[in-house]
Design goal:
This protein has about 250 residues and is mostly helical. The chain has helices at about 1-25, 55-80, 85-110, 120-130, 135-160, 165-190, 220-235, 235-240.
């Protein structure tokens, strides 16, 4: 009988581990799946910390960023003059739509209420993009993207260092490489248009710009995202065994 009980317990733990690993693709731990913190399970029961004020703040701000990116991305597809800018807008719309859906699932699980509209600042930026001269639209859109993603990346790193909820932190871990990809794309497009990334207000001067991204060059960014998802699954079990306290800064 003891042998049967041990076998059943092992099977349950294995199934839970597979569910958690799959959940990392969406940045969320499936409801009911076992999670393990650095302190380990108490009395044989898996546990996860409740969402803190930090988790709530990050989730709400990121939801607004997702909404803002979708809105100005749609505007860029209509007003942008360069094909690379339109391509970047298409990628950001797709990525932020998926990110928002994932975040909504996590927020529901953690009891976090998300905003239904971008922040006042983000709405003002969108209004500016609607009225700026056509000849200045692409550069203005790129500048907005650079500023926004710099802030979003910084906030996400803070969440990974100081968050409490495993589910929210997993979501932030999956979100970070996507935001970094978007920042690189915006920097590249801005540089290709003759702009200097270091001159964009509020931008880290050490960020720098990359080579110009042409429409055909977007595939590597999508491939990189796919590789990142595979790595997340491959390291999912390890990541759940201990809290992330010092995220790597690129």
């Amino acid at each position: 009988m003891k042998s049967l009980n041990r076998a059943a317990t092992a099977a349950m733990v294995s199934a839970a581990g597979l569910a958690v690993g799959s959940g990392l693709l969406l940045g969320a731990v499936p409801a009911g799946a076992a999670t393990v913190t650095s302190a380990g399970p108490a009395h044989g029961q898996a546990r996860t910390a409740a969402a803190s004020a930090q988790d709530t703040s990050w989730a709400q701000a990121t939801a607004q960023t997702d909404l803002a990116e979708i809105a100005i991305g749609q505007l860029a597809q209509q007003r942008a003059s360069h094909s690379a800018t339109k391509m970047m807008a298409q990628v950001t719309i797709s990525d932020h739509t998926k990110a928002l859906a994932s975040l909504k699932s996590v927020a529901s699980q953690e009891g976090i209420t998300l905003p239904s509209a971008p922040s006042a600042t983000q709405q003002a930026q969108a209004a500016k993009l609607k009225t700026v001269a056509s000849s200045q639209f692409d550069a203005t859109y790129d500048s907005t993207q650079i500023q926004g993603h710099e802030l979003s990346i910084s906030a996400t790193r803070t969440e990974l260092a100081s968050g409490s909820s495993t589910a929210v932190m997993n979501n932030a871990s999956a979100y970070l490489p996507v935001a970094e990809k978007h920042l690189q794309m915006a920097e590249s497009d801005y540089t290709a248009l003759g702009g200097s990334v270091s001159s964009v207000p509020g931008v880290n001067a050490g960020t720098g710009g990359l080579a110009a991204i042409q429409p055909a060059d977007n595939a590597p960014w999508l491939a990189a995202g796919a590789v990142g998802a595979v790595l997340l699954v491959g390291t999912g079990t390890f990541a759940l065994r201990r809290r992330v306290s010092h995220p790597r800064v690129s």
